Amino acid sequence: MTTTCTMYDGRGDRDTPHRLLERADAVLLDFDGPVCDLFRGACTAHIADEVKERALDEWGWLDPRVKACADSHGVLRHLADMAVRRPGGHRGTRLGWADGIVTRYEYAAVLRAAPTPGASELVGELDRLGKTLLIVTNNAEGPVREYLERRNLLRHFTAVLGRDPHDPHLMKPHRHVVDRALAELGRPNPSRTLLIGDQLTDLAAARSAQVPFLGLTRDERTAALMRHGGAHSVIASFEPLMSALSTLPTR
Predict the structure, then answer these.
(1) What is the helix (H) or strand (E) element at residue 235, kind and residue range?
(2) How far is CA 163 from the centre of its chain?
(3) What is the pLDDT of residues 192-208, one digit of tens each?
(4) Under CATH, domain 17-38+115-245 is a member of which superfamily?
(5) What phi and psi values does residue 188 have, to the nearest 5 degrees?
């Protein structure tokens, strides 16, 4: 089966990229999508399978939702849910071994990750204009830092905030990582911050934290869902942002 993507034309946005960037003192970037394609579009089912095999060895059984999951981050969340539901289980059950498996694959993927077109230029221009930059991601912090270092981008970021290795429940759509970013910034008015992400989970985290959201997607259905869900603007590439940045003064 072949899946095709249609382009979103941007109509119906609540705001313009120019106004969003003009108001933002800080920009929060999701990593996988806005900065790079970490797994180059490949399915992560093999990672989920390794986690499930280890979980089966550890616990002797798997919840149906764990068994059915074919996503490396989804399996962490479902496994955490299972840990709560199993006899004698509770939130906070140590799942560092599961996070470690996913992190190992993320480190390997960094070596082959494909940069998102225009991402390096966008990061450099945002920094030049005095915007504070932070990464807010469901990926592990270490692999993200390694990717940014390899691309000479780490110097532009004030902080790299990844998933909590001890509690998968805190991954986006939970607002936890966005709250951490706001704390790093000194807890400014959230309206002075902008989150750029490519997933509905990014939007949910931004909305919960009352941070304006700009969606990046070429998929028409995802764009429509983002708009319906409260995204301030949705773009198909970074070109509109670069055009907007060219008209903003340096701070």
Answers:
(1) strand 233-235
(2) 10
(3) 999 999 999 999 999 99
(4) HAD superfamily/HAD-like (3.40.50.1000)
(5) -75, 175
